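Dataset card, provenance and construction

Sequences and ligand SMILES were collected as paired inputs. For each pair, a complete structure of the chain with the small molecule in place was predicted and serialized as structure tokens. The example below shows a pair involving octanoyl-coenzyme A. Curators did not alter the output after generation; any descriptive sentences attached to a record were derived from the structure itself.
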Amino acid sequence: MTSPLPHRSATSTAPERQDEEELHQRRTAITALGHELRALVDAAVRTTAAPSTLNRVSDGVHRLTAQLIGHLRARAEVPEVDEFPGGVRMYSPVTGPGSPLAPPLRVTRLDRGATGTCVLGITHEGPPGYGHGGISAMLLDELMGWACATAGMPGMTVSLQMRYHRPVPLESPLRVLAHVTGTEGRKVYVTGSIATEEDLSTVLVTAEGVFVSPDPEHARALFPSLRSAPG
Ligand SMILES: CCCCCCCC(=O)SCCNC(=O)CCNC(=O)[C@H](O)C(C)(C)COP(=O)(O)OP(=O)(O)OC[C@H]1O[C@@H](n2cnc3c(N)ncnc32)[C@H](O)[C@@H]1OP(=O)(O)O
């Protein structure tokens, strides 16, 4: 199972340990804020509170936001708390423990594949009581991307074909699966599915995707903040 928290190394030198401790504290705080934000978003889309209460909460949230906007990172800059590419992404809208949008999906790497678990909430609702089709596509796109990475070919989605067989329930543990089925040059072919933990044999959604590993020149142009990174 992937963890948003850093691994600690017994062989770290003292300054490294200090850095690791600081990273651990930041990730723990980001995770705690993400948890509270998800609770806020959930309550905000479910509440039947009076307009006066909504206005009061709105003012309070505005004041809280002001405490953060003095410390924003530049757009497209990889957060210091992340390991990109190929590792922790604290603010991913799918897996990020710091993201109010993320369920978040908890991912386990498999051999040329990946599996993920999550619970969708009312924030992710499409038809009343069920998940939005775009959210299912988001879960599968992400996990299929992880599957590519486990096959040693991290890439970007160029094609994603979805099939919605049955509605995806909210507030019910889900299992998402993805497997690489083949590669051809820089292209990776991947399949994915969503089922409930309760009934793994009844597939609710399936997907077929093509991912492409950008060539190095293209990758440097797309991700300039990684210009000095190895590879
Ligand atoms: C671990 C975390 C995982 C996270 C996963 C998240 C996944 C995402 O959401 S990625 C974001 C969404 N995707 C994107 O924004 C990608 C946008 N596309 C691009 O930028 C470019 O297409 C890019 C960089 C991927 C590839 O560009 P480039 O390197 O020039 O590839 P290009 O030469 O055009 O095509 C490579 C091959 O793919 C094929 N291909 C391109 N597009 C498609 C397509 N839509 N369908 C099928 N095949 C395609 C080409 O035919 C070519 O095949 P061949 O080598 O056999 O001729």
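Derived descriptions for this record:
The domain at 106-224 is CATH 3.10.129.10 (Thiol Ester Dehydrase; Chain A).
The longest helix spans residues 14-46.
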